[in-house]
Prior knowledge:
Elements: H1 2-17, H2 19-24, E1 27-34, H3 41-60, E2 68-75, H4 80-90, H5 105-112, H6 115-118, E3 122-123, E4 141-142, H7 148-162, E5 173-179, H8 182-185, H9 188-198, E6 201-207, H10 215-224, E7 228-232, H11 236-248, E8 255-257, H12 264-267, E9 278-280, H13 291-299, H14 316-339, H15 347-355, E10 358-359, H16 361-367, E11 376-377, E12 391-394, E13 399-401, H17 410-428, H18 435-439
Amino acid sequence: MKAKLIALVAALAASALSPCVFAQAKEQFIPVLSYRTGPYAPNGVPFANGYVDYLKYINAKGGLNGVKIIYEECDTSYATDKGVECYERLKGKNGGASLVEPLSTGITFALTDKAPGDKIPIITTGYGRSDSADGTVFKWNFPLLGTYWSAADMLVNYIGKKEGGSAKLKGKKITLVYADHPYGKEPIPYLQEASKMYGYELQLLPVVLPGIEQKSTWLQIRQTRPDYVFLWGWGVMNSTALKEAVATGFPREKMYGVWWAGAEPDVRDVGEGAKGYNALTLQHGAEPNAKITKDILAVVHGKGNGTGPKEEVGSVLYTRGLIASMLATEGIRRAQDRFGKGKVMTGEQVRWGLENLALDQKKLDALGFAGVMRPISTSCVDHRGDSWARIHTWDGAKWNFTSGWMQPDDAVIKPLVRASASKYAAEKKLAPRSAEDCEA
């Protein structure tokens, strides 16, 4: 009897060390770079909560063809050095990172040179390097849904139409109030090029982050009296800009923010004072009635597993976190279509999935994003994919869509992307990807 017991224990021990037992633990690791502390927390927290809640939702629905998602957060405080530290600490954990979403253009610039060696794709949903849309040079970067050049182009075209046509922009004054940070500087090359095309006068006013001191900036605006102000801020910088606009009497109807300057935290403290302020959307706005919102409330929050307060579910930045998380997991699912459903994907395989996204409206609707998102597909040449946006306007209490769907003029943007990507390739001594590499 004793001998049989010893044999049984030995057999169990051997099976615990067996490779096939390890193979049964199908877990795909996604590091989550977030910022729940510091001056950008009011904007960073809802995004992170949406991102994580969607991962929980996927797991509650059975994972990605049976593969569960595991994740670990690391707080970057929106600081580039901390972001790099988080990336280095997490990239090799749990079998290796599938991908990374830095949630910072500064961190994205710092990680771009690391990604090829680490073989970890970088997703930048509506931010990052605009030239990384060129997948023939930036093999590992995916600025999905839109870049800051496409955002700036849509804003210029929108106000051009409001004026009666792009030709009417000649002689107009456009002021860019921007964060003195890689994020805020990113639209400048496009706006400078467009000013030559359309003849408007461009004024550039940088704001030192976190942006709580802007009195001198708005004094200059009062003196120069621009026709329009574009706001490229983040966190407290946005609400501060709106408060200063109120104080100096600049009409909020003439202010247009990028999609990171058009959420509830940006206007809540200003309330009625922000009425009339416009912002470009990254397709979606606040989406309290979307199917995915209701599903998250039922499947995640309804089971007591919500990451934050359920009241924020459906808000602008929470929804953006959901979308970013969905794009990441659908990239993994797409990779499984080629490399094996129900298998854990490597970073290289996930990169292929992201480069071959094919989310049509039927698929998006099935995922719960009807009315929230439009189709997106990517390719070796185009790592941005389809870019759509709308304008929403603050009425003093909530955001309302005030425009139809818009797309950037890629006939203007693509030459800028190619020129900048080619310059980067020359500096880094990179050869453009071959047709064989694109098909691999």
